[in-house]
Specification:
The chain is mainly α and 279 residues long. Helices cover 36% and strands 4% of the residues. The chain has a two-stranded antiparallel ribbon. Helix 6 (226-241) packs antiparallel against helix 7 and helix 7 packs antiparallel against helix 8. It is globular.
């Protein structure tokens, strides 16, 4: 992978104005190619073809001119429609096996853009204009844009942490449910055990490990980066957190989520492992 640019600007800047010169150069390299010479002699001749464009989730949404993951049709890969949670906050996507977005969805025409925009719940396409890579020879559709798994999975770990901590979990407990029946209930003493277990394990961690493995507390996650949250999800939750959960169905559900994330983080994956993630 070659980093070809670092773009700086406020959130209201026109991202396409930065991308168009880069895209133009990529189109020339894809069609005309390049010749590498040494001392006047041709060494190599090749074309450069972009295979994927990626970034964090909000960044790729801007490249696609997609309304974002907080909207009703917030998934840029398919047409699943979300719903707000009981508190009216957040967006939750429970529908599965929805239609994958076709290439045409990403390339609205001028005539389509001139039509009145439907209300958010009916706006399936959720794309406000065609993206800057629309004429790239390798642009095939939605799979051209990568998914940032690091922030995606680390945010899952943060969400589980918030559901567990006494300070944050109150907003996740339904109004008609007694707190003692909350399936993710952990006591203050349980968090002390988790912190102690993490700190005790540090002496066995190889020096080559560069992450932060300071014991997590119910009040502070200071110095935790995305990679550290992933370590918390993959290593700490199944070994130190799950045994402290009282409800067996909750234990199984959390372990299944950890297993799916662990498989998704692999460099290679088999078809059977993809089926396991879906289950």
């Amino acid at each position: 992978m070659f980093q070809i640019a670092t773009l700086y600007g406020n959130t209201n800047s026109d991202l396409d104005s930065f991308l168009k010169p880069i895209v133009k150069e990529l189109e020339l390299l894809s069609t005309k190619g390049m010749v590498v010479k040494k001392n006047g002699d041709e060494v190599a001749r090749a074309c450069v073809i972009p295979l994927v464009v990626s970034g964090d989730i909000p960044g790729v949404s801007k490249i696609l001119h997609h309304q974002g993951h907080g909207s009703f049709y917030g998934c840029r890969f398919c047409y699943t429609c979300g719903e707000h949670g009981p508190s009216g906050q957040g967006m939750y996507f429970e529908q599965r096996n929805c239609q994958i977005r076709p290439k045409d969805c990403l390339l609205p025409t001028d005539d389509q853009l001139r039509l009145p925009r439907p209300e958010p719940r009916l706006n399936r396409n959720n794309i406000t204009k065609a993206n800057a890579f629309k004429n790239t020879v390798s642009f095939t559709g939605i799979e051209f844009f990568g998914l940032d798994e690091m922030h995606l999975i680390s945010n899952m770990a943060k969400q589980i942490y918030r559901m567990l901590t006494p300070m944050d979990r109150k907003k996740y407990i339904p109004e008609n449910l007694n707190e003692n029946d909350y399936p993710f209930l952990l006591s203050h003493q349980a968090f002390t055990l988790i912190e102690q277990g993490m700190n005790d394990s540090r002496r066995r961690i190889p020096l080559a490990f560069s992450g932060c493995f300071k014991g997590i507390t119910e009040k502070s996650t200071k110095s935790y980066r995305s990679v550290d949250w992933i370590d918390f999800l993959v290593y700490v939750i199944p070994t130190l957190v799950v045994p402290l959960l009282v409800h067996i169905p909750t234990q199984k559900a959390v372990l299944a989520l950890v297993r799916a994330c662990t498989l998704a983080l692999q460099w290679n994956i088999t078809e059977s492992e993809i089926d396991e993630i879906h289950r």
